[in-house]
Design a protein that fits this description.
With 193 residues, this protein is α/β, with parallel strands linked by helices. Helices cover 30% and strands 28% of the residues. Strands 1, 2, 3, 4, 5, 6 and 7 form a 7-stranded mixed beta sheet that branches.
């Protein structure tokens, strides 16, 4: 039997940290910087899987199970990552207003043991519908600072919840870490407690 692996979260996101802690597992945090821009023609699902794997691979050390994740918002094949600043956040929110969009999160694990690496990855999709938003409402939300480091420029677990009229699928996916997917990926792994 192999020895237990130490779990490492390859993210500095406080939201991901809180969600993962909610599963009752012990882990350490090792943030990984990655170029999150899509490749030419890359669709949302392959993008989030690629980025989650890149982050997990970069964080993995021998004796560890690295968990990487990446989230984007998609209007069809148009990908909305984190806004570069307030103007882009306002533009993103005006695009989402009164429409349905998808939130995609890729989750990947890389288990590193002597002479062996095991990689697993999955993507989760959630549909979200927004009510109509006026310019003043968008400007006030952006001025709060909340949307500036969030995919699609909103936080469903924060004030951005007031924009959503329907969430179909995993709520924790929209926050940034689909716990049902994480639980499935961690299920067969012997983790240190």
């Amino acid at each position: 039997m192999s020895s237990p692996l130490r779990l490492v979260l390859a993210s500095g996101s406080p939201r991901r940290r809180e969600l993962l802690a909610g599963l009752g597992v012990r882990f350490e945090v090792r943030p990984i910087d990655a170029d999150e821009r899509p490749l030419p023609g890359e669709k949302p699902e392959p993008l989030v899987i690629r980025l989650a794997l890149e982050k997990a691979r970069a964080a993995a050390r021998e004796g560890e199970l690295a968990l990487g994740a990446d989230t984007v918002v998609a209007l069809g094949d148009e990908i909305l990552g984190k806004p570069s600043g307030p103007a882009e956040a306002e533009w993103m929110l005006s695009r989402l207003a009164g429409r349905e969009h998808e939130v995609w999160t890729g989750v990947a694990t890389v288990a590193a043991s002597p002479g062996r690496r095991v990689e697993r990855a999955r993507a989760t999709r959630t549909r979200v519908a927004f009510r109509a938003l006026d310019r003043a409402e968008i400007a006030a939300y952006v001025a709060s600072g909340e949307p500036l480091d969030k995919a699609g420029a909103y936080a469903i677990q924060g004030s951005g919840a007031a924009f959503a009229t329907c969430v179909e699928g995993s709520f924790t996916n929209v926050v940034g870490l689909p716990l049902e997917t994480v639980r499935a990926l961690l299920g067969a792994v012997n983790l240190r407690t």
